[in-house]
Amino acid sequence: MVEMTKYMRKGLVEQKDGAILSFSAYAAKIPGIVSFTIGEPDFNTPDHIKTAAKNAIAQNHSHYAPSAGTLGLRQAASDFLAQRYDQHYAPDEVVVTNGVTEGIYDALLAILNPGDVVVVPTPAFPLYISDAKMLGAEVVQLDTSKTGFKLTPQALQGVLDEYGERVRAVVLNYPNNPTGVCYSQEELDQLADVIRDKPIFALCDEIYSELSYEHPHTSMVKSLRDQVILLTGVSKSWAMTGYRIGVVCAPKEVAHQVLKLHQMITTSEPTPMQDAAQEAFAHGQDDAVPMKAEFKKRRDYLYQELTKLGFDCVKPEGAFYIFAKIPAGLEQDDTKLIYELAEQAKVAVTAGSFFAKGGAGYLRFSYAVSVAQIEEGVKRLRAYLQTK
Hints:
The protein is an alpha/beta fold and 388 residues long. It has 14 helices and 13 strands. The strands form 3 sheets. The chain has a 7-stranded mixed β-sheet with strand order 2-8-7-6-5-3-4, sandwiched between helices. A 4-stranded antiparallel β-sheet has the order 9-10-13-12. It has a two-stranded parallel ribbon with strand order 1-11.
């Protein structure tokens, strides 16, 4: 029998299964486990958005939508970004994708050729790295664990000095998954200055923009619009992860190239889901406010309790994750420790190593779970630590 996988795409076959989802599936089989693994809001989609989806079905909005997305959704997203963040994109500079997940892939596929270099500040959501590698690009991981989990202009310039014209993109995610770190506008301006007027794209994933706690959300779009590809969507801010609506924004000609790929990959997104997302952008501007307040309360409690237990944490400024350094005296191999915690403490967390360089020795806690679960998880962690 021929082993056919040997003849499939090398970049794909070499990819491992997603470690975060694989461990979450493993932990979910443990009876009574308290899980801090998956980054998904534990809220319901607001009723007015659900009604919009129902109405779309009732009104037979069941045919192909334009590949770029319905004009209503693209206009609503455009208006929302302008009013909320002073980010100005015309509807023909907006492409609707199957979540930001597809948007990341489409954008990277549109701008990368084999051998190009992509700069990814790490720890980082692993999808950027795996997508770029599968496309034949070289990924330069810049460990930010010694600089407050932020990319510095000096580190970015160092990559440009070393790799020269091969550098084609830098990926920025803020508020950040897994650290919750945000950038000030001044910091983004300084990073923009390093790549300004160079043939380098900034891929800016701002899916957590509505969950910035301490300061208004900032963006490199304000610093360097012509070189930025902006990624956002409705999953996190409106608790619509299952609706699978992402938005890619870029200068018109760049957006058109992304659109061509999107047409080849998915044709268009489900029309009722687009109507629901349009309702979110158009009439749900304040829907995230109570969610943000609740997440902030959970953040404060979990940060306080983890600190008491000996975890060294950077206090997150956005998103819904705490990235905590494993205390001395515990197993320092985070990939081993998460299994030990799951089996002995009945608490599931994500290994920092899953987020590439700079993540080893850390654990990511998602506080997108109820206060009661957080309190129970802390109680179990405390009991576990007392045995050590």
